[in-house]
Specification:
The protein contains 21 helices and 12 strands. By secondary structure, it is of the alpha+beta class. Helix 1 packs parallel to helix 7, helix 7 (192-218) crosses helix 8 (220-286) and helix 17 packs antiparallel against helix 20. The longest helix has 67 residues, at 220-286.
Length: 630
């Protein structure tokens, strides 16, 4: 067994020596960073492995230490070895700094030796009489897994290696994994399992020697020539790819050149079309049937079309940069402009503003203006663009329409007045003519019957007595027609007495409807022409209530309000959908609402009606003082 230890140590002694020779060789001639990294690693791995051999008790180098020390060295260098194989593929295709790697491995080696000799913190790996510690066994499995991972990384990078070298490395890593499994079973450091593991490790070192040291020492130029061959093949392939790319790029250039010529031709045609389109747009802008202009942020004209210039009578030189829009507005329109221009800047648009612009000759041009604002990328106002329309004909038409409406309103008023006069005349004729005649007939018949009964007897007089009720009814009917046409009390006593009389008569006819009057105005405060209007509106409203509302109570309010006269007639009836009724045609809607509205508006007042289903109806008419005085 001593012979075995001495032989083993002699063999391992050559590893750092060969590692240093290989390191010098690959530093000079290898282009494979994998081999360079492994060579540097094995220089320090061999050193720790040498200490592992020398630490055995029979060597006498470290007296006083048992087999645990040698086992600690073993685990330490096997961790470094497995991690080195795992990290080595990372340096393929990357630049390796040998000096930095030597310094790094030196530091790691010092830390390992310090943890074993100086600090004594390295975990125990072997206990005499008990065998391997759990740390040692778990470490062997971890090391085996690290070797297995390095094997997978080596397979991924297999194209970077010579076939023989790849086979040696692959087999060496497999033997190292097998050795690690064997080292998990021995109880004595001189046991069979430990011996078998060392044999596997010897074979692994031999394969590493064949893969790295022998190839690097005996056939160093094979690696170089292989790399050169690979580089030559890559260069040839790159040359072929470059030639193919040149041919392909030449075709692309030719095609691009043809496409460019076509695009240039299309661009020239597009530019010509664009120029024609710009000319058309320019003509359209200048000759449009409306005015166009643009204002800067201070309100100066910066662009204006021919149409607007013709309307105003100015030349372009008179306006551009010299005049503001505010300079061409009347005082009334200037106030509107000063209110709307800040709103244009803030909101971004204004619509349908009516302005009066002053032409060069001093005449007025009524226009309708709409404008939008233009802002920069930060949202700051830059300019505005506006469209104006000549409203001269429109204003003339409006004026003519207003005049026509005024004449129509006057005519309607005259018609209503004529109607009232006609009613008044008919009522007077009925009262003075037919009424008096019927009264005289009644008197004569009664006197005749009285005389007849005295002379001839009562039996024949009773036959003519039936005429008296008929004549009396006719008199009553004539009186009713007369009152409907125009009650004499309106002319004799005024509107307040007429409203009181009409309400009493209405309650007699419709006994289930009660009327509450709220009169807060004097007779003298109501203009004479307005008294008839108030009576007719009240008459029509109460008739509608009786026909349609199913109300039980009505409130009539006539009072002074806000310097005018306010009439309100409100019921608690069933109401109706106001919009639906107002949207109907005249025949379906009836003449009541229309008649009341016309009477109120033709007399200079306003008319409003409010109603909803189940909430009754309220009618309001209002006459302002200035309207009454006019």
């Amino acid at each position: 067994m001593v012979w075995y230890s001495i032989s083993w140590s002699k063999f391992l002694y050559h590893i750092p020596k060969r590692g240093s020779i290989f390191l010098k060789l690959i530093l000079d001639k290898s282009e494979n960073n994998y081999l360079l990294f492994i060579g540097i690693a094995f220089l320090f791995i061999g050193a720790i492995d040498l200490l592992h051999t020398l630490a055995y008790r029979g060597m006498g180098v470290f007296p006083g230490y048992d087999a645990n020390r040698a086992t600690q060295f073993w685990i330490a260098f096997r961790y470094i070895q497995s991690l080195s194989f795992l990290m080595a593929p990372l340096f393929l295709g990357r630049k390796l700094k040998p000096n930095f790697m030597v310094a790094a491995y030196t530091a790691v080696t010092i830390l390992v030796l310090g943890s074993i000799f100086y600090w004594d913190i390295f975990p125990d790996c072997f206990i005499e009489g008990k065998g391997l510690t759990p740390f040692k066994k778990i470490s062997e499995y971890i090391i085996a897994l690290l070797f297995l991972g390095s094997l997978g990384a080596l397979i991924k990078k297999r194209k970077e290696f010579d076939t023989a070298v790849l086979g040696y490395l692959f087999s060496a890593i497999l033997l190292s994994i097998t050795a690690e499994m064997a080292f998990t079973f021995y109880i004595s450091v001189y046991g069979l399992s430990n011996l078998i593991g060392h044999f596997f490790e010897i074979f692994s070192y031999y394969l590493i020697y064949k893969a790295i040291i022998e190839t690097g020492f005996k056939r160093p130029y094979d690696l170089l020539f292989r790399n050169l061959k690979l580089s030559e093949e890559a260069l040839k392939k790159a040359k072929e790819e470059l030639e193919n790319k040149v041919v392909e790029r030449t075709r692309e250039w030719q095609k691009a050149n043809e496409q460019l010529r076509f695009e240039l031709s299309e661009r020239r045609r597009a530019e010509e079309a664009l120029r024609k389109s710009a000319d058309e747009i320019h003509d359209l802008y200048n000759k449009a049937p409306c005015g166009y202009h643009s204002l800067d942020e201070e309100g100066f004209f910066i662009r204006i079309n021919d149409t607007e210039l013709q309307w105003l009578g100015y030349s372009r030189e008179d306006v551009i940069g010299r005049k503001k829009l505010a300079d061409l507005l009347t005082t009334k329109s200037l106030k509107i402009f000063e209110q709307s221009f800040p709103r244009l800047k803030e909101r971004g648009w204004v619509r349908d503003l009516e302005f009066e612009m002053i032409r060069k000759d001093g005449t007025i041009l009524p226009v309708l203006l709409s404008a939008t604002s233009i802002k920069d990328g930060q949202g700051n106002y830059v300019m505005s663009r506006a469209t104006i329309y000549d409203m001269t004909e429109h204003k003339a038409a409006e004026k003519a329409l207003e005049e026509s409406e005024k004449q129509l309103r006057h005519l309607s008023s005259q018609l209503l007045m004529a109607q009232e006069l006609e009613r008044k005349g008919i009522a007077r004729e009925l009262h003075d003519g037919l009424g008096q005649t019927l009264t005289l007939i009644k008197y004569r018949v009664e006197k005749f019957l009285d005389d007849w009964s005295k002379k001839e007897g009562r039996e024949d007089a009773e036959t003519l007595q039936g005429l008296i009720p008929i004549i009396q009814g006719s008199i009553g009917e004539v009186r009713r027609i007369q009152m409907d046409l125009r009650p004499p009390i309106l002319d004799d006593l005024g509107i307040l007495a007429t409203l009181s009389w009409f309400c009493r008569e209405f309650e007699k006819t419709y006994s289930d409807i009660r009327i509450r009057k709220e009169i807060a105005i004097e007779e003298e405060e109501i203009p004479v022409p307005l008294r008839t209007v108030i009576y007719r509106i009240s008459q029509e409203a109460l008739n509608n209530i009786a026909k349609y509302s199913r109300a039980g109570q009505v409130r009539i309010s006539l009072r002074k309000k806000e310097g005018g006269i306010n009439l309100v007639i409100q019921d608690n009836g069933q109401g109706f959908e106001l919009e639906k009724v107002l949207s109907q045609g005249g025949a379906e809607r009836g003449l009541g609402l229309t008649s009341m509205r016309e009477r109120a508006e033709l007399s200079g007042g306003s008319f409003r009606i409010e109603s909803s289903p189940g909430k009754g109806t309220a009618i309001q008419a209002f006459w302002a003082v200035e309207q009454l005085s006019s």
